[in-house]
Each structure stands twice: as C-alpha cells, then as structure tokens.
C-alpha cells in the first residue's frame, strides 16, 4: 500500500519538484518505504537506530537502489535518482549478492508495471542498465576508526575521480556508525605525555569524523544515511502496548508531552548527535507476521523520532525486500499539519 | 603507522623541519595527523617562512595516507570478486546446506548458537571433514574445550573407495590448535595472517586454507567480558574484526560457536556475548536438539541475504552410533 | 589497533600508542634502544615488547611447506594416531566404562553431576584409586589430585576401595598365573593412599588460587593423571551475589582446567550438584552453575535414580554417542549393577 502511495505522490508532485529544483538547485527527494514519510534533501543526516537484526542494512540497500536507478530508461519509468551511492561499510558484512538480487527484482518490477506484455517469459531485466546501476554503487570497508579517518580525509579526491565519469554522489551511507565504539573507548583511557596533543579518545575521533563529513558535504551535495546498532541491552519495557498507548495519546494530545528520552540508550558523543538531523528508531515487533504458505517472518516497527511523527510503520522483510504490512492494524485518520496526507496508524492487537 | 620520523627514510620531505612544525601543533604521529583539520594546518603553514615546503609535506602525508586506504570498489567489481573468489562450501549436512542455499560462504563469518550438547561441535567437525574431503581445502580448527576429536572427524568422511588413504589425505589437511585465552588467540590469528600472506606471495594455491573454525569463541570471551572497563568488549570487537578481515582478504569461511545464556525469569535462552557481538557475524544460526529423538533444528537468526527467522528446518544429524 | 591486543599493562600500551607504535610492524622495525627512548620505558620492557611483536610476526611457519600453518598446530592425522593411544581411567564398572568409551578420557574435562547421595564422591574416590593401577594391569600407574571443597572425602572409604582394588588385582594375578607368567602385585593399599594428593579448600578464593597453582604442582609431581574437584560448585553457589562475575570467574577456571588437561595429558573430573531449573512451564532438575557453565566441559555425565537403580547418562560429548548405563555403589567401590553376573574388567 505504502509503495503505491509514495509512487503516486512522486508523480503528482513532479511539476512542483521541477520548479523547486530550478529554484533551489538541489531538490528534496523521497525514498521508498519505510523512509517515505519525510522528504530528504542534501545536507540531511539520517540516523537509523535499532538492535541487530532489525533490517537496518536492508533499508540502506533499498535506499541505495532508488538512488542508483535512473529515472527512466528506454521508455520505462524506474523512478530513481541516477546518482552515485557511497557505502562505507564499518560492520564489514555487506553482501553484494543481496544488492544485486534486489536490484534485479526492482528492474523486473518496474518493467512489468510499465510494459504490459502478456508473455511472461519475455520479461527480462536489461543487462546494460543493471551493469550501469551496479557501477553507480561505490563501496569501501574500514576495519577501525583510523582507517575510517584516513578514508574520509582522502574521500573528496576519490569522489571527484568517480564523478568525472558522469553522475554525482547523492547519498553517503555508513553501516554502522557505532561499530568502533568499544575500541575507541579503550584508547580514550590512554595517557598522553603532552598537553597540546589531541588524544585518540572516542570524543576526539567522532568529532573529527563529523568534521570531515561536514567538509565533504560542503563540496558535494550529499544526504548521509547512517545506521546505528544499539550496543546496550534494551532496558525499557518491550511491551508494545505501552508504547503504543503513549504514542496514541500523542495523536490527540500535545505532541511535545512525549518524553524526549529516546527509546534506547544513546552512546554516541554529542558532536555526532548534533550532526544528525533525522532520527529513526526500529524495533522488533513481538508478534510475527503470518502469511499463507510462508513461514513466520519477523515484523519490525519503525518510528520517526526526529521529526517526531505519530505514525508507526510496521514492516516485514521478504525476498523482494521491505514490505509494509497493515495486518492487525486499525486505521486511524489523522491530518498532520506538515503533510496533508492520510496517515495510517498501526495499532497492535 | 608509526612516529613521523620513521617516514623520513622514504620521503625526504618529512624532514626535521617539517616534523618540528607538526610537533608545534601537537602532531607527533600519523594518528595525530589524522585527527587534525588539514585545512587549518595548511593555513598555519602559510604563515611560516618555508610555507611551500611545509604544504608539500602535508600533501605528501595525505598521499601516504591515501596509499594505505582500501580501493573504492563499485558494485560490479564487488560482484566479480564474489563470483571469482568467494565460493560456498558444503557443510556436509544437507539440511544446513539447503537452508543456507549452498552452505558456508567464503569471506563470511558464520556463528552457531545453541545450548550445551545441541550439536555445535558436531557441526564444526562435520563441516571440517566435508571441506577437507570435497573441496580439497585446508581447515584450521581452533579448539578451546578439548573437544576436537580426530576419530569423530574420520567418521564424517563419506568416500568409500580406498578408505585408509582417503582418511589420511583428508585428516592431514585439517590442523588443530588449542587456545585457552584471548591473547593467545590473537597471537595465533596474527601468525595465521602472516602465514597466509606469505603463501599468497609464494603462490601456494593447492590446498589453500578455506575454513577456519573457532570452537568455542564464547569461552574465550566470557572471562574478559563485563566489569567496569571497556577492555573486554574492545578485545571482543577487535577479535571479530580480525576474523572478518581474515575471512574477506584470504577468502576463508569462518565458523565460530557461541553458547546460550538464560534470559530473565521466563526460562528462555538467548545467545551469549550480548548486544555488541550481535553486529559481528554475517550469519547467525541457532541450533537446538530434541533429546527424545535426537533431531536437530537449525534456524536462521540473522543472514545478510535472507530474511531472518524465515526458514526453520529439521534435520537428523548423522548418528554417531558407530563411534565405539 | 594491533598494539591494543598485546597482553601489556594499560600504561605501557598507552605510551606505545601515543608514541605512534600502533601496529606490530612498526614495533618490530625498530631496535629496543630506540623503542625505549621513543616510548619512555626501560630497555628491558622494550626488549620484552619487541620479543612479543617478533614472536607473533614470526610464529608462522617460515619453512614454507610445513604441514601446519602456525606453530603449535597439529594435523588431525597425527592426532588420530595419538588419540588411539590415549589411556583411559576405568571406573571399575564395566557398563559405565563401555558408554564412556573405555573409561574417563585423559586430556578431557569431564563433568559428573547428580543429586546428593547418588555416588558422586564415590566415583571421585574410585577414580583417584583406579588411576594408580599399574601399567602391567592395564592401568595408568599415575597419581591423583583430590580437591575437596565440601569436606566429603573420607579416608576410611578410600582405604576400603584401595583394598578392594588391590584384592582384585591379586585375584587377577592368581588367575593369570595359572595360564601365563605375570608379575606379582607389589602395591599395598597404603601406597595407594600416599599417591592421592588431597587439598581441602574452604572458600572460592582458595579454590581459584589452587587452580592457578596446579600447573606448577603438577610439573613437580609428573605422574598426576587425574584431578578431581569435589565439588566445583560448592563455594560458588554460596558466596556469590554477582552472577555475572561468577560466570566470568568460572569460565576462566574452566579454561585453566582445559589447559591443564591438554598440557599434562591428564583427566580432569569435576563433580557438580544439581539445581532446579524452570523451563517450558515446569521445574526440572539440571546441573548447577547455569547455562554458561554447561559449555565449559568436554564431556558431561549425569547421574540419576531410575527406581532403585543408579544410572549414568552421557549428556554431552564430542566423540561419544549419548547412552546410559546402570551402576551400583558397593562396599568395594563402584561395580556393575548386576554385580553377580560379571566380574570387574581391568584390561
């Protein structure tokens, strides 16, 4: 449901967007669900928090595909941005096979919905398009913070080399930003002999990372999407009903009454927290999504913490990617002041 | 990386004069250099008498850093590396292989989680036998619980023709190393890394190392975990990254085992090692065994290319009746 | 950073890293004098660090085509031949020996647990006697260490079992004399008692200290072939409030036992108590010390009552199939439950 809604939205907004892009130079864009609630523009830094596994990397891959796909190709509408994606893999477990499979899936899907062929066997994805998309996906892995720092220091030159081939870098992805937290914390405790030296402490390292990224964003128009795995055990009540009741009351009451406390234990230094402009929190739903002929799939709940939205999306991950589900939900109609759209609010049974 | 003066030998520009300038800004090592805003540093250099030389030094430093960086790969290059170098290895167990769409993937870290006597060690030994027999690969088995049993591995060898010779051939491809603390573990892995690197230089391609087993990783980490300091967790993370690096750069499938601990009052169990460890392995498999009929169940807790919790399959482990 | 993985004190590690020595290669490329000057440590400390760094970079096989990749690694083929020759300690109960693959295996850590009165201590005493059966009688001719945490070791009982053991050997010799030539039993029950090293520990700190000391003790008393801890649990069930710390301490102790077992090729037998555990809506008996501990042993044997008979069940073993066997505790020690039908095998 969500996907079609978003698609429709993109199409009908087309002229307004074109105007905006003329005026502003860079336009805001919408990604596919579950990142469809808020339009993003260059300079935004999105942080996706959740324990492992909550499909965070999956969301990144899905967003990356939207970015690397062209808008149209040979008369078929793909609705992409045709930009480069830079994926910084700090967890070192990115699986390119998943990217490739999902890209193929998207290509086929777009082809099917645009070209009405009766003959199913004729539906194949365009190899040339596939290769050009894959080439727009750029990947780097780092095994510690020092590697990340050296990468960021030299990234500008390398991006320029890549951009010489045509497309601009649209999104910088980091998976995941807290990966080196413990090793950096250890070096925080090191004694230094001189006072004017910057120590290799967690705060200094993260501060420099943020600084380098800001510099990068000055010269390239980038959206940064970073995942963050929670590294502490969840101490908050996992009972979903509690949380839903609280967000439910927000719908009709005062939105700011909701405690500003994030639903997880924040561990990133303040320099990073100040850098982030959009915050998303994902947690595992207690009940599984059951569908006919399939085994139980874990369901996840996604919540926007900044900007604070009252809607909670419930989604599952299957072979085709992320699917928003509205099973077991009760639709509440609610007009948001910022987006005049019908929101569906999911209530767990 | 090292103190700046070590760089002078190869780069004459990083001379005493440049180092003095750096030291006056608190830069003594390459790491310090990384932590500094280079634009700011260049601006400072501008004010000095020998500005050009200093700026050249900064550029040289930057290029030295760039050389150390990993290359930027695009999707097609990644895919090519995957198809050429990273194969899937049969675990010797049909159920697990079909669950994992072929078996253990080279370049990935696979974790087996399960309660005591759920068949983790059996899985490891079976996979070792399978890789050594069918893929002609070498296996490096790190044992922390004296549970490596060559006799048991010999039973997993399937081939029937010329049993004794095959047995000897397969078993001599599996090496076992006992490790009882985390520091020895690091020593062993670093030694392995050096050995593998020298093998690459010597082009030793026959019988390359394809599987690294650590049974169990949790018994090494549990004694250092917890407490107030971050040392334990830092070592755990460092160990995880070292394993992943080995796996990726030398195209090895890494298989580690982890135990379960009770979670709260409900009597449920969860994998040990906590929240931080969760983001280390590529694939997490949960093993459980029904003691009434010795059926093993393997389920996916996490997988990089498959939805978690998706497939649960029951398999019967090749019974070890013939052991005696 | 590679330096942070070295077993160094945090102050020296800090000095090394802040001086820029973050990788092993950067350390091994300098002389100890330079290192000491740069890092501001003593020359001997620098020498130690260099030794460590060089050892790691050089620990791989430099001779190229050696069969193992890393020094100290053994290949499974050699180990197979070694395993076949590995001695086992009989329990004096042939049914039990059978499911154990011939007895308690040396080089393994075996945990034996059960309810009070099932005969854990009896097994412990029996093993500390049986380990001394001379080689010509198919035994190990070793010595035993008995670590008593509960105060349940009874020397009179040990003497009884030792006497029975000597009598059995004499009877066996008599039988053999009729047919072949065989040596005379020279062992006296009192000699047997002399070769059991008994340690009484009264707190968990003593227990930890003793386990740390065992390595030295066994190097001095080479023939120790079995270490029995009766019970591993006692002090840890009483004095610990911080369960996380208990897990850490216990898992470290388990690794030390593993190391001992491997290094001296001896059997470690840990006796454990039972506790109730809440699983799937009901309370069940399980061995004490929790889930983490259950992974700490190579083999796990659970003793239980089945009607009036005592049974042993192999709950966990990397090399043995799970099976159960009955046994009895007689005045002469552990025996088969149908004691009249079979004689104790010692071969």
TrEMBL record, chain A:
It comes from the Eukaryota. Residues 20-231 form the RecA family profile domain. InterPro entries: P-loop_NTPase (IPR027417), RecA_ATP-bd (IPR020588), XRCC2 (IPR030547). CDD domains: XRCC2. This is RecA family profile 1 domain-containing protein.
Automatic annotation (TrEMBL), chain B:
Keywords: ATP-binding, DNA damage, DNA recombination, DNA repair, DNA-binding, Nucleotide-binding, Nucleus. It holds the Pfam family Rad51. Involved in the homologous recombination repair (HRR) pathway of double-stranded DNA breaks arising during DNA replication or induced by DNA-damaging agents. The gene is BnaA08g29130D. This is BnaA08g29130D protein. Belongs to the RecA family. RAD51 subfamily. Residues 85-260 form the RecA family profile domain. The lineage of its organism: Eukaryota, Viridiplantae, Streptophyta, Embryophyta, Tracheophyta. GO terms for molecular function: ATP binding; ATP-dependent activity, acting on DNA; ATP-dependent DNA damage sensor activity; single-stranded DNA binding.
UniProtKB/TrEMBL annotation, chain C:
GO terms for cellular component: Rad51B-Rad51C-Rad51D-XRCC2 complex; Rad51C-XRCC3 complex; replication fork. InterPro entries: DNA_recomb/repair_RecA-like (IPR016467), HR_Repair_Mediator (IPR052093), P-loop_NTPase (IPR027417), Rad51_C (IPR013632), RecA_ATP-bd (IPR020588). Transmembrane segments: none annotated. Residues 323-347 are annotated as: Disordered. It is found in: Nucleus. PROSITE patterns: RECA_2. It comes from the Eukaryota. GO terms for biological process: meiotic DNA recombinase assembly; reciprocal meiotic recombination. GO terms for molecular function: ATP binding; ATP-dependent DNA damage sensor activity; DNA binding. It holds the Pfam family Rad51. Its main location: nucleus. The keyword ATP-binding applies. CDD domains: Rad51C. Residues 85-274 form the RecA family profile domain. Residues 323-341 have a biased composition (Polar residues). Keywords: ATP-binding, DNA damage, DNA recombination, DNA repair, DNA-binding, Nucleotide-binding, Nucleus. Involved in the homologous recombination repair (HRR) pathway of double-stranded DNA breaks arising during DNA replication or induced by DNA-damaging agents. Belongs to the RecA family. RAD51 subfamily. This is DNA repair protein RAD51 homolog 3.
